[in-house]
Automatic annotation (TrEMBL):
GO CC annotation: cytosol; mitochondrion
Protein name from the UniProt record: YjgF-like protein
Native species: Cylindrodendrum hubeiense
Entry superkingdom: Eukaryota
Family the entry assigns: Belongs to the RutC family.
PROSITE patterns: UPF0076
Highest classification ranks of the organism: Eukaryota, Fungi, Dikarya, Ascomycota, Pezizomycotina
GO MF annotation list: deaminase activity
PANTHER family xref list: 2-IMINOBUTANOATE/2-IMINOPROPANOATE DEAMINASE RIDA (PTHR11803), PROTEIN HMF1-RELATED (PTHR11803:SF58)
Length: 129
């Protein structure tokens, strides 16, 4: 019977609520599902006045740290979901996103009314271990 391992690393922003940074499916351990990552520093600090590009970098760096802790990497991401609060930021978010996801995983990008802690962007992913 499949179960999951909780993934946690101090190299990414801590979970802001009652959830894990990511989970890894066992016994095969071939799938990793991350929680959405806000543009927070590893200590949880948010600098919401920074440009959307810098905030997008922080979201993806958090994903990278979590995937590394789970034995994976951004190169093994097969699906992402990007949440933004303003579609006017779509091009700038894409400009940063494409620097990291050169393998072009499947992706959804949706505009939402608001995100936790007032963040303008949040990104989650599914990756192979």
């Amino acid at each position: 019977m499949a179960s999951f391992d909780r993934i946690s690393t101090a190299n990414a922003a801590p979970a802001a609520g009652p959830y894990s940074q990511a989970v890894k499916i066992s016994p095969s351990s071939s799938w990793i599902f991350t929680s959405g990552q806000l543009p927070a520093e590893a200590d949880g600090t948010l600098r919401l006045d920074d440009p959307i590009g810098e905030q997008t970098h922080r979201c993806i760096k958090n994903l990278a740290a979590i995937l590394e802790a789970a034995g994976s990497s951004l190169d093994k991401v097969i699906k992402t979901t990007v949440f933004i609060t303003d579609m006017k930021n779509f091009a700038e978010v894409n400009g940063v996103y494409e620097q990291y996801f050169t393998q072009k995983p499947a992706r959804s990008c949706v505009a939402v009314k608001e995100l936790p802690k007032g963040a303008p962007v949040e990104i989650e992913c599914i990756a192979l271990a």
